[in-house]
Specification:
Layout lengths: L8 E4 L2 E5 L10 E4 L2 H9 L6 H18 L5 H16 L6 H14 L7 H30 L7 E5 L14 H10 L4 E6 L6 H13 L3 E4 L4 H6 L5 E4 L3 E3 L4 E4 L2 H11 L3 E4 L5 E2 L16 H4 E2 L2 E2 L12 E4 L6 E4 L2 E3 L3 H10 L1
Helix pairs in contact: 1-2, 2-3, 2-4, 2-5, 3-4, 3-5, 4-5, 5-6
Length: about 350
């Protein structure tokens, strides 16, 4: 990851420090969380966002929860921790990585009831650090696996932010861009602004500029016309949950990009780690879509732009059908259709 891009989070002196992404690009500051409730609030308020990053945050939140539970033995600590972990795992419902990370934390101490509370807490701290470190390794592997899909001089269209600030490493979709640039390829990125919270304009453009990658921000509605003008060579996005058949949930507005890309013959790639796949869902119809507050759409820069009394529809995500996805790039390789088979093969390894 480029040294000019600030760390998304770090754990120090019993506190989780989260880069406050609601304040980017104007201010770089951190929120210090001492309790799991503070982490949950930060996740919901999008202080930290991006499926892999909130998974890492969730793991650290379990550590904080364990530290606040008064228990006389390991068994009572683990029992109380299972209850305390559920609000963490459900803080944002669409992203698979959050519950995956919390469940992994609980598995790490399963059957360890004979240990002391201090021993349990030590295992949890080590597991959270391991999840965070593995996330960075995962990002690097996705970058290596996908960089060959980007030719020298390519123009890449992105949506939302799937970069270093959405993960514990260099990103998912943007890791591929960074790896391609590191191999000496010239790459130009078009970043959808990503209404209503402007993660593309505020965050993707911020980190690409810091990394020295040429980036141009455009309104979400301009993406199709950019493809029509033959100015996009590939679309590269992340994902928050992927069903067993390859249907992928990502930031609202991704679906319309996939439809436009298919119409104009532009390859449409999804980059995501294995932890994002939810094999319990046969297709995307079972993905629970988070709906956000109306004010995110109705109020812009402190000024209300939607008349009082008018309803607002504000889903945070949409689902792109597998048939519109050219390939899914993971840390374990590049998956191609038929996805139900390639996903099953990948998860079996």
């Amino acid at each position: 990851m480029d040294a000019n891009i600030p760390r998304t989070m770090y754990f120090e002196d019993g506190r989780l420090f989260l880069l406050d992404q609601t304040r980017l690009p104007g201010e770089t500051s951190y929120v210090a969380c001492e309790t799991p409730e503070e982490v949950i609030e930060a996740v919901r308020r999008l202080v930290v966002r991006g499926a892999p990053a909130i998974g890492c945050a969730g793991a650290h939140a379990v550590v904080l929860a364990a530290g606040r539970i008064s228990a006389i033995d390991g068994a009572s600590l683990i029992s109380a921790l299972r209850i305390a972990a559920e609000p963490i795992a459900s803080a944002r419902p669409t992203a698979a990585n959050l519950r995956w990370a919390v469940d992994r934390m609980l598995r790490a101490v399963a059957g360890k009831e004979h240990l002391s509370p201090g021993g349990i807490r030590a295992i949890l701290a080590a597991e959270a650090a391991r999840i965070h470190a593995e996330d960075a390794e995962m990002c690097a592997a996705i970058g290596r696996n996908g960089a060959g899909l980007i030719r020298d001089g390519a123009r890449v269209l992105t949506h939302c932010n799937a970069g270093a600030l959405a993960t514990g490493g260099s990103g998912t979709a943007l890791a591929i861009v960074y790896e391609a640039v590191g191999r000496g390829k010239r790459v130009e990125v078009y970043a959808d602004e990503t209404r209503p919270l402007l993660q593309g304009a505020r965050i993707t453009a911020y980190e690409l500029k810091a990394a020295g990658v040429p980036v141009t921000v455009l309104c979400d509605g301009a993406a199709a016309s950019l493809m029509a003008a033959s100015r996009v060579d590939l679309v590269l996005v992340g994902a928050d949950r992927i069903a067993a058949n390859g249907d992928a949930a990502n930031k609202i507005g991704t679906l319309q990009l996939a439809i436009a890309a298919r119409h104009y013959g532009v390859p449409f790639y999804v980059a995501a780690p294995a932890s994002t796949f939810d094999l319990s869902l046969p297709d995307g119809g079972g993905i629970r879509i988070e709906h956000r507050p109306a004010e995110e759409v109705a109020v812009v820069a402190g000024r209300r732009v939607v008349p009082d009394g008018v309803s607002v529809y504000n889903p945070a995500f949409d689902v792109t059908p597998a048939e519109l996805i050219t390939a899914i790039i993971t840390e374990r390789g590049v998956l191609r259709p038929p996805y139900r088979q390639s996903i099953a093969d990948m998860t079996a390894r």
